[in-house]
Structure formats: C-alpha cells, structure tokens
Please model this.
Amino acid sequence: MTAVGARILIVEDNPYSLELMSYLLHAHGHEVRSARTGVEAVRTTGAEQPDLILLDLQLPDLDGYEVLRALRALPASAHIKIIAVTAVAMVGDRERTLAAGFDHYMAKPINPRTFVRELDGWLPHAHHP
Model:
C-alpha cells in the first residue's frame, strides 16, 4: 500500500521560506496549503483541516503564540500537530515554544536535506512514506 501525502499548512509571511518549504513538501508527495497571516491561518485550518501545521512565530498580524492559542481553542483543530518554524532561535526559545503548547520546534534557516524527514515523525501514521 502506498502512503498518501499529508495535508500540510505552512503559515509563513516570508516568500522565500514559504517557497522552499512548499517545494520540499510537494517533492515528497504532500499537499501544501499556505497562509501569510495568523488570521488567514485560523480561517484556512477551519476550512482545510490539515494533518500538520508549520507555524512561523513572527507574522504581520498575530504572533505564532496567539495563532496557536486560537487553534487549540477550536475543537476541530485542537488535535492537529503544530510545529513552530522560526528564526527566533535564542537560548530558551525552544523551551518557551514547547511550554506554550507547540508540538515541536524547528529553527530557520531549515536544512533542505533533513527538513521533510524531521517532519515525518509528526505526521499521522497513514502519511508516512
């Protein structure tokens, strides 16, 4: 049985980061949606029901923590794995994001060689290669 690609929402306002992550995920058979603001992320999550959300912490409207709280408060998205993908990589930031309720933390710039493999562990079982 062949694994079906996951539905992944990338919440990212930097066009270069968005393009790279989208390209890598598409190349591995995943279906990618994007949102460039926190409000758009909440709206898209409700409509699309992604399997995984990659969430930048620095967005033009809401910060990633506010988006996380909004998504966790909605019954339809409370179960979705949410990964912080951010250039905010100071001492203690990983611990702060995990304590806030993110499932995982990835620092930017991402490593194209290991990016998709690192995400595999956060996908529902049916979507593993």
